Amino acid sequence: MKPCPESPDPRAVLQDTDLCVKCGLCLPHCPTYRATRDEGDSPRGRITLMQGLMAGQLEDDAVVRRHLDGCLSCGACTAVCPSRVPFGRLMDAARAVLTPPRSHGRISGHLLRHAGTRRAAAGVLRVAQRTGMMQVAGVLGSSRRPGLARDARLLPRLGPAPPRPGGRAGAAGQGAAAARTVALFTGCTGESLDAAAVRAALAVLQRLGWRVTVPREQVCCGALDQHAGRPGAAADLARRNRRAFAASEGPILSLNSGCRAHLRDYAACDDQGADIAARVTGLCTLLQGVDLGPLRLQDDPLRVAMHTPCTLRHVLGEHDALEALLRRLPGVEVLPLPENELCCGSAGTHMLENPAMADRLLAPKLEAVEALAPDVLVTANVGCAVHFAAGLKARRSKVPVLGPAELLAQRMGVQSFPIQR
Ligand code: SF4
Ligand code: SF4
């Protein structure tokens, strides 16, 4: 079992670098090593750098930091390592104590922790997008600040905000499934980047007759803080979520594979954490064995390209559940993207901090989408969806990017959310 995000001593975690026997079997599976062919960008090389830093033989200089910060935390190396080196944990610990993060962006930290501020920011963004201010930011940014142009390009057009946490959605009393209750985890993106997916999931569950609760005090899962070397901030968020979901009932539905993977890590914290980890599920798993008849899905032909996020494939092992759900949908032809086991470059905040590598890793996937010419692209992670949508937009592709819930809602004929991100 992985340690609780409140793990008290990252230096103890780093002792596990000794598990690496330097066999190199992970190298062909590492997206950054495949891109640069630089040992420092490989799992084995990064472990060697960590060992050098721990032994005081290396300094935390720009070169070391570039190699370590460049890790996508994609989990591909852990999945193939015969020595079971827990690379993700090592990377988190290294960022916490060996290459401490630069100052935490005060604005982003506040946004992760305070739902009211996030809602206000999302409202401002909606207005900016509708009035054309975002295009202005993109144009200005392209000449004065390339980063601003990229940020403006990456942000999807936000749909209407979903119902606020604290309420109940869905209908009870509609047949055999009526007694089923689901608690919805919306995290830090549910009111903004993932608002369309939340609304779509509510529409799906409502038509299935399930009762949905959205616990009011929930916050960001903490994954972004944990993977950026801020375990204290991640632990605070984990504690608040454990309290928020303590009184909830039924499975905890987390639409994003990245959040879900981190919620599972609460297991080692305490009894409440173990309870959350046991209950947390994704939509594809939740719907396994469930009669989809009540959804009254359209059956006209639809070619669906499928991307499997790293957290879904390497961490949760749920990529088969996504494909199985898609294959159950009438009229749908599933087209898995080639090399789906390789990261698209999104990787949490990696696409913002390492845009050149993020775009390089995405390029062959965009070419594959263009070659397949699907009607839609489906992915199970909001970060991947934003990254793909921005890349497709830059190529003037009209292929919309959807999550599984959005695809289901679209096939139900529910159009209360934007199809194009
Ligand atoms: S991380 Fe695992 S697969 Fe990679 S070199 Fe070390 S022992 Fe071998
Ligand atoms: S987590 Fe991914 S990017 Fe990082 S070393 Fe492992 S395979 Fe490479």
Describe this protein with a few key phrases.
421 residues, alpha/beta, binds iron/sulfur cluster, Fumarate Reductase Iron-sulfur Protein, Chain B, domain 2, single chain, 7% strand, 22 helices, 5-stranded mixed β-sheet, disordered C terminus
Characterization of this structure:
The chain folds into four domains: 10-98, Alpha-helical ferredoxin (Fumarate Reductase Iron-sulfur Protein, Chain B, domain 2, Orthogonal Bundle); 106-154, no CATH class; 168-286; 296-411, Rossmann fold (3-Layer(aba) Sandwich). It is 49% helix and 7% strand. The strands form two sheets. A five-stranded mixed sheet has the order 1-3-2-4-5. It has helices spanning 10-14, 31-36, 43-54, 62-69, 76-80, 87-98, 106-113, 115-131, 133-144, 146-154, 195-207, 223-227, 231-244, 257-264, 271-279, 283-286, 310-315, 319-328, 350-353, 355-372, 382-394, 404-411, and strands at residues 168-169, 181-185, 211-213, 252-254, 280-281, 302-306, 332-336, 376-378, 401-402. The chain has 22 helices and nine strands. Strand 8, helix 21 and strand 9 form a beta-alpha-beta unit. The protein has 421 residues and is an alpha/beta fold. One iron/sulfur cluster is lined by residues 29-32, 43, 46, 71-77, 87.
